[in-house]
Each structure stands twice: as C-alpha cells, then as structure tokens.
From TrEMBL:
Organism of origin: Pseudomonas ekonensis
Protein name as annotated: Glutamate--cysteine ligase
Keyword Nucleotide-binding in annotation: yes
HAMAP family with a match to the protein in the record: Glu_cys_ligase
Keyword Lipid biosynthesis: no
Record-linked InterPro entries: Glu_cys_ligase, Glut_cys_ligase
One Pfam assignment: Glu_cys_ligase
Keyword terms of this UniProt record: ATP-binding, Glutathione biosynthesis, Ligase, Nucleotide-binding
Taxon lineage: Bacteria, Pseudomonadati, Pseudomonadota, Gammaproteobacteria, Pseudomonadales
Pathway: Sulfur metabolism; glutathione biosynthesis; glutathione from L-cysteine and L-glutamate: step 1/2
EC category name: ligase
Domain (Glutamate--cysteine ligase) ranges: 10-380
PANTHER family: GLUTAMATE--CYSTEINE LIGASE
Enzyme Commission number(s) from the entry: 6.3.2.2
Length: 527
C-alpha cells in the first residue's frame, strides 16, 4: 500500500468524513441489438412506442436503428441504478412485440453491410447531424463493427471529497483543477489495471463466423458458424480488425486535462488524407461531417473517458475545458449474456471499489514504456487471459498474471472495507470475494462459462445467444411493470415524440450552415 493511499484511507475513515462515500454517483448505459424471433437483426424502425430516439432521455439508439441504448439516471446506490435499468428493460419489452434484445456484446448474424440500418433521428438540424455523423462512421470503419454492444458505467466521487483531500495534502491551485487532476490520475491508474476487469468480466470469447466478412484473422473455428479463441476473455475489446489507421497516432496522454483536450481538439481539426479524398458530399448528399481525423470528440474510441454534463449546444470538450471533469465513463465492460441486464449489483460494487482504488492510489505519469505496457497487458488479457501461466509486464519485468491479479485484489480490499463501513453491510467485501474466486479458478469467469454453456448444449454462438435472449425476455415479460410505472414511461415516450415534432416545426436555418457553425465551435477553441 502506498503512503498516499494509507493517508487518504485514514482521512476518509474518520467519523466526520465516512458518510461522504455514500454520495458517489452511478449511472449505467446499456446497448443491445433488437433481433427477430430467429435471432436475425431486426430491420424494423425504432419502435414509436418507445418514444423519440432523439429526445427520450432513457431510451435511445446508438449507431444503428436496431441498436437500442438504455440510460439510467445517476444515483447514489448502484442497486437503485440497476433497479432503474430493470424498469427500462421491462417497459421496452412491453413494446417490442415478437422481437428480442440480443443477450451478448458480439452481434447476431448480420445482413449484408449495406442492409444494416443507420439510426435515424428525424429532420431537425441536430437530428440530421447525428445521422450524417453515423454515415461518416460507416464510411470510416464499416457498419458491422458499429453493431457491437457494451455496458458503460458512469462513476463520480462526491464534489466535497476533493477539497477535503486538497486541504489535507496542502496542494495549491483551485479546487476545480485539483478535482480534474485527480480524475486524470484515476484514469491513468485505470489504464494500468483495467486488464483485471477484462479477466473478471470479459464475456465475449466467441462470435458469429460471418462477423469478419471474410477478412483475415487469427481466430480458431469452434464450429461451422462460430469463431473463438480458447483463452480469450473479450474479443469485443481486442484489435479484431477494428483498427482505425486515422486514430492510430491519437493516444491522448492522460498527464493532465489540457494535454487530453488538446489532443482531441487537434484531431477534430486536422484533415486526414484518405477522408479528404472521399470528401464530405457524394452526389450532392452529406456522407461525413468533415474530413478530419475525428468528426467529433466522441468518435475517439477509448476504454475510459473523462466527462462533464454538457449544456444545450455545448460540445464535450468545451464543457471539460470550461468546468473541469465531473465523472468518468468506463467503456470496456462486456454485456454478460447470463444476466438479464448484462450487469448485476455484485459487478457494480466491485467496480466501485476498483475505481476508488484507482482514484486514491499513487498515480505516476505514464511514460512511453509504461503507456505501451498498459496497452499490451490489456490486449494480452482480452485475447488469452485464461491461458495458464500468462505473463504480463510490470515495471519492465514479466509477472504472472494470476499473481498480480491476486495482489491487486488484496490492495483493493481496504477500499471495499471502507465502502462497507460507510454504507453498512458487507456487500463490497462479498463482491471482492467473488472476484478472488475467479482468479483462483478461471472456469468461474464469464468468458469460460460462455464456452462451457455452448459446449454443454452443443450450440453455436448464435444459438447460445438466442437461447439466452429468450430466457431474458421471459424474465422481463413474466413480471410487467406496475400500472403507474408503465403509464409514466408511456407519458415520457409521448412527450419525447412531441418534443421532436416541435424541434422540426420550429427549425430555423439551413443544415449546411448548422454544420458549419458546429465545426466553427471547435475551431474557435482550437485557437
């Protein structure tokens, strides 16, 4: 244990400060494909009964018209966050007819690339902007890759915690700068240790053989319809043909907030020759928002992002630069196909202890070598995390992955204990024990369980996934929402459709001018 971590644990363990840790906030975004009863991609439009994908704050779409995204509010107790997510699922199922929500992260057997529908948001300028952005993604990375789904876990520490630490440590500068620097330190530690999450929660060791569209790969054939790697934990997070050459040179340094925002600002303002060659228009129609390395900041693919709630019309970078970091978004979590919502409270409690450890522990700057090691350790674990004797790199030395995982869990234990003291009970300690069991027995990991279930039922990836999707549908449909909850969701859906209609009726200004102004907003802060 580092001296800094010990001091911070002691400070937060004092009676006057202990209740602070009850005020962490947790939000979940869960993506999932709509599929037919045969387990094929649903080609139907986003169900109107779910409201407007543009303006409904809880149910929207991600890349494709078929890729739903459920968004919870940020709440202090993750079990309340999960209860909120469960209500959204139950409501969605009341409106899905004979369609299912696909249970894992890797997609169902997909139609031809051109038949994957891009999400549509109506005729308002902002709706059209979202559509053109997605057309740009199709052009740059292909539609198939955009059909992968995940869980995003949003986490913040209480605002009052930072001034307390800052004062105790005699750090100069403003509270806001200290808070941002602390979140950036959390992100650096997350980069160091996130391989552990992939071992514990990775749940995509196999995929539908058609997914790779005949591209070369290093996967093995499990059966005529399934590709896999025997020791993989998360093929979703591997470099499985999802390499963006444009983004290859873009590894924002997480040394401070300004170097991070600078690298993203430059990428949004720097032309990339192959995109320039395509241009923004084909046959008079928009095909991408611009010809730069990134069309918008969110196009940058990363395992974790610093975030700040934006005002209307404000861009994510502007919000971060103006008001600092408010929370982090963990983006590397697979959907667990055995869980109806893809995540459960045990995983959430462990994530809290893990993120608290990343936030409070020493976090030296990432040098070229340590940055490279963080990336290669992560890739080793997603491709072969359950391989006996797997070695990772730590401080320039090889280390046995299981040994390091065990040590990390021991270091996280005092954080789990502190959270339990703060909130009462032993939920975090039990969540930690569940992870210790997976380290000593790899067959308990979700990735091993997926392969075991497929073998036991003699199923392909698609057959296994459809069976799980049907089981989850039965779970949600067997216990409909209470009448007043159902009515509340229906009212939200209706009002979101009215909001979209109003936007479209009152739209002023030309779309080209709107895109120009949107571009200018980033260039203005680039100077």
């Amino acid at each position: 244990m580092s001296e800094l971590l010990n001091r911070r644990l002691a400070l937060l363990g004092e009676r006057a400060n202990l209740s602070l840790l009850e005020q962490c906030l947790h939000g979940i975004e869960r993506e999932c494909l709509r599929v037919t009863g045969e387990g094929r991609l649903a080609q139907t439009p986003h169900p109107e009964a779910l409201g407007s994908a543009l303006t409904n704050e809880q149910i929207t779409t991600d890349y494709s018209e078929s890729l739903l995204e459920f968004i919870t509010p940020a709440l202090p107790d993750p079990s309340d966050t999960l209860a909120s997510l469960e209500r959204i699922h139950r409501f969605a199922y009341s409106k899905l007819g004979n369609e299912y929500l696909w249970s894992p992260s890797m997609p169902c057997p997909l139609p031809a690339e051109e038949d994957i529908p891009i999400a549509y948001y109506g005729t308002s300028n902002i709706g059209r902007l979202k559509y053109v952005y997605r057309q740009g993604l199709a052009l740059r990375y292909g539609k198939t890759m955009q059909c992968i789904a995940g869980i995003h876990y949003n986490f913040s520490l209480p605002e009052k915690l930072w001034p307390l630490l800052k004062q105790a440590e005699g750090t100069g500068g403003s509270d806001r700068d200290f808070q941002s620097a602390s979140y950036i330190a959390l992100i650096r530690n997350f980069r160091r240790y996130s391989w552990l999450l992939m071992y514990l929660f990775g749940a995509s060791p196999a995929l539908d053989a058609g997914f790779l569209r005949g591209r070369p790969h290093q996967l093995e054939q499990l059966d005529p319809d399934t590709l896999y790697l025997p020791y993989a934990t998360s093929l979703r997070m591997s470099d499985l043909g999802y390499q963006s050459n444009a983004q290859a040179g873009l590894t924002p340094c997480y040394n401070d907030l300004s170097s991070y925002t600078d690298s993203l600002r430059k990428a949004v303002a720097t032309p990339y020759a192959p995109y320039v060659e395509i241009g923004t228009h084909q046959d008079g129609e928009w095909v991408q928002l611009n010809t730069n390395i990134l069309q918008i900041e969110n196009e940058y693919y990363s395992n974790i992002r610093p975030k700040r709630v934006t005002y209307t019309g404000e861009r994510p970078i502007q919000a971060l630069m103006a008001r600092g970091i408010q929370y982090v978004e963990v983006r590397c979590l697979d959907i667990n196909p055995f869980l109806p919502m893809g995540i459960d409270v045990t995983e959430a409690r462990f994530l809290d202890a893990f993120l608290l450890y990343c936030a409070l522990n020493d976090s030296p700057l990432l040098t070229g070598t340590s940055c490279g090691n963080a990336t290669s350790n992560f890739l080793s674990v997603v491709k072969e995390g359950r391989r006996p004797g797997l070695q990772l790199q730590r401080d320039g030395q090889p280390v046995d992955m299981k040994q390091w995982a065990g040590e990390l869990l021991e270091h996280i234990a005092p954080l789990a204990a502190l959270l339990d003291r703060s909130q009462g009970g032993d939920a975090h300690g039990k969540a930690l024990d569940a992870q210790r069991a997976k380290v000593s027995d790899p067959s308990l990991t979700p990735s091993a369980q997926v392969l075991a279930a497929m073998a036991a039922h003699k199923e392909s990836f698609a057959q296994f996934s459809l069976r799980q999707s049907q089981a989850h549908a039965d779970f949600f449909r067997s216990e409909p929402l209470a009448a007043e909850e159902q009515t509340r969701f229906e009212a939200l859906a209706r009002s979101s459709l009215e909001q979209q209609a109003e936007l479209e009726q009152n739209e002023v200004g030309d779309f080209d001018v709107f895109v120009g102004a949107y571009q200018a907003s980033i260039l203005a802060i680039s100077n």
